[in-house]
Design brief:
Shape: elongated
Number of domains: 4
Low-confidence stretches: 251-255
Distance between the termini: 94 Å
CATH class of the largest domain: Alpha Beta
CATH topology of the largest domain: GMP Synthetase, Chain A, domain 3
Structural class: mainly alpha
Amino acid sequence: MALDVYKEWLGIPEDQRPPDHYQLLRLVQFEDNADKIQSNYRKLNAHVRKYATGQYMDESQALLNELAKAMLCLTDAERKHEYDAQLGREFDEDEEPGARPPIEKILLDQGEISPQQVDDAKRMHENLGIDMRDALVQLKAVKADVSARALATSMGLPFVDLAEMIPDDSVLDRVPRSMVKQHSILPLFVDEDDDVLLVASVNPITADAEDDLRLRFELPIRQVLSTPLAINQAIAKYYAPGARQEVDEVVTSSKKKGEKAAQTKKAAKKKPAQKKPATPAEEAREQKQLCIIIFCMSFVAAYLLDGFVIDSDTYLDGLSLLAYIALPSLAAAVCYATLWPRR
């Protein structure tokens, strides 16, 4: 009998199948407090992770993904509004999503920073050109995760703690380490319900990176935010040297394709030309030259034979004369029979 993870691990009654996001995260319906949503998600995530290395490893991973998808939906203001409407929630006009407050106002309203710290951060932002999020962290006004959460709220995006989330290996395998390091991103998993790729990043994903990911997965991209430290640690963990096979880069522009074609053409030019086969006339001339060389060398051989082998005090006696006649004659006969070209 299959394990009912909803009942056994989360305590969800059997009549709530499939559970909606609120039931899955053990929240009251239409809960709007993002901190409460995040808190419940962290508790349930930690509980389900206990089964991640045991007998129910696959069931645990599937449920962890469900919890993450539910949390990401309910902490995204626009998606939550659409989801609640699907569940039958009725909204007043003043509850419609509107302009989002800047990060400094969010932190001020939360009591995380003072007006003086806001002024200091703004001066740093204007003088150094860094983001308000980074300025507040460098001034030690807030911690990095608090600042990142406020930025996510300001942008209307979910915030994720990557230490509580396990990316899909099949997704990581399709994005090279060079790309995730260059853009400070981490692909997480494909949300099959909405057919989108979830990608964690430090800053808004650039158009080039988004186009590259779209080409790789043939899916739209949905962004979630995390802290720079969490992104870097996740890249070091999941893209450690030798941890996964690197994939080829995707060529995203005709310019790159043109450069590749030009390189191929240039390499072809450098390739040495093949030697043309000799014509019959050239072969005949080479054979005649070889015969003449052999004939001349036969006289040299006769001279050496006469000087070092034939023991005679008379110049050109019978044996010596025989050597000077026999060796060249033999060489001429062999060359004529084997090498001399025939018409």
